[in-house]
Structures are given as structure tokens and as C-alpha cells.
Amino acid sequence: MRKVSFAEYGGPDVLRCADAEEPHAGPGQVRVAVRAAGVNPVDWRIREGQFRTTRPLALPAGVGIDAAGVVDEVGEGVEGVEAGDRVFGEGLSTYAEFAVLTAWARMPEGLTFEEAAGYPSVVETALRVLREVGVRAGQTLLVSGASGGVGSAVLQIARDRGITVIGTGSAANQEYLRGLGALATTYGEGWVERVRRLGEVDAALDLAGSGVIRELVALTGDPRRVISIADLTAPEFGVRFSGTAGSVPDALAEAADLIARGRLHIPVEKAYPLAEAAAAHIDSRAGHTRGRRVLII
User: Fold this and answer.
1) Which residue from 35, 151, 220, 256 lies 20 to 30 Å from 133 (Cα-Cα)?
2) Name one GO molecular function term (predicted).
């Protein structure tokens, strides 16, 4: 099978797409013939070695955690799924023709593989940070970097829960954010005052890692009301860095429910062939994403 991997930490040029041995499902796992794989910022952060001290890898290592595909191998002890089922979920080394998933759910009706691949870790992260920041119905949440995959999910889930959301993004993404139900404003010089004009902020999320932690604390008045998934310096300001996943099966079940009820839709901004994983990483790292980026297998 073809698989993307890297033998050393570094830039996108360290990625190689080459033949590799097929993985097999162990106990509690399923193997899928991957049809699409999600491209997440954590993928290139791992490739760059940003987590090498906290989560060291045995190199060479595969890339990717999200996938959608067709089950073709069911591990011992797995029930409720069989070969031929269309599923989406999380696993290891999903930038490949075959991948083992450790958490999965059936794909909602009407969802394409490309769309489904963009949901798993994005929705899990969105649900987790909303829970951790403690925002409730009737309150206002500020989301810095709101137009990407996690931001798109946060805006829609928050709206479904009766939370008002202020979202910052590029000038080109203002209408997109408003379409997801956010009070939108641009980042850049003067953004704090623009946010204040939109309303009082009860809690805030840093999804882009653009060096705004100090301002988010000032806007909320309490570092405990701020969560970051992208700025490793957040603890220096008393802000929690959220990097440990919660229950992925629960998140997938909630994602499937939201999608089925028409309350969640994350568009695919661009799909790339497997051999262009490096280009996908370059574009993901550049930011300004509207929705999700995926690889087509």
C-alpha cells in the first residue's frame, strides 16, 4: 500500500509517499480502506517536532489521525460493525491506503468520504474545549481563529447550545463566520476594541496560536476562562493548554447526531491527492482555512 511518513523531524519536505506494509486490526480496532484523511494542524506540528519531548515518536513515523473509509478488517472483541460498513473516526497513520482506527462511527447518510474525514478530531476538540472553558447558554464566547475546522465546529455547536459567539478571522472570512451564526470581526490592529464593541466576553478560546493570550485574559478578566489549543506558552499566563483528547467515541456519536439534525456542517475547502500531503501541510500551516482540508486516497 501507499503511505505518507517521515524519517526525521522537519519541514514538509521530510514527508515521503512510498510503499509500506499494510497494518492489521488488533483487539478493539477496525481496519479501513481509507477513502479520505483529514489534514489537521496537529499533523504538521508533530512532523515539525513540536511535541517531541512530551510525545516522542519512533521514527520513521506515519502521519494523520482522522479518516473515513470502508471497514475491511474487524479486530477481536469488536461488535456492531462489519466489513463493508462506511465509517469515520480516529486512528494512527491515516495518510495511507489502509489504516487502523481505534474509535469510529457509521457515516451519517448523505455525507461523502471527503466531508466525513474532516470531522473526527475537529469535533472532539470543539466539544472538549467548550466543556473545559465552562461557557453556558446565555453567555458570550470569543473564538480567536474561528474560521478553521475546530472554529467552524465550535461556532455551530455553541449556537445549538444557546451561546452567543464572537469570532475573529481574516477579512475574507467575515461572511463565512456570520453564516455560521457568529458576531464576526477581523483580527489585526485594534481587534480588542472591535471585540469590546460587540459585547462583554465571558470566556475565550485561542484556536490559532497567534500570540493573543494576554489580550484574551484581559477581555475575560480571568485566565481560567481562557483555553488554548495552539499556543504552548499559554500556561505562562495562567491559561490552560488543552491537548489531551476526551472520549472520541462519544464525540463521534454527537457529531453524527448534529450532522443528521442539520446542525453541523464543515465545508471542505480543498482536497489533495495523497502524494501532495506536503502541499496540504504548507497550506494548513499558512492558516486562513475556511473549514477543512483533506487528502483523497
Assistant:
1) 256
2) oxidoreductase activity
Q: CA–CA separation, 70 vs 142, rounded Å?
A: 38
Q: Rounded to two decimals, what is the model's pTM?
A: 0.90
In 164-174, which positions are buried (b, 16+ CB within 10 angstroms) versus exposed (e)? bbbbbbbeebb
- Per-10-residue mean pLDDT, the chain, length 297: 98 98 98 97 94 91 98 97 97 97 95 96 95 97 95 96 97 95 95 97 95 97 97 95 86 93 93 98 88 95
Cell of 220: 475575560
Q: How far apart are CA 69 and CA 87, in angstroms?
A: 6
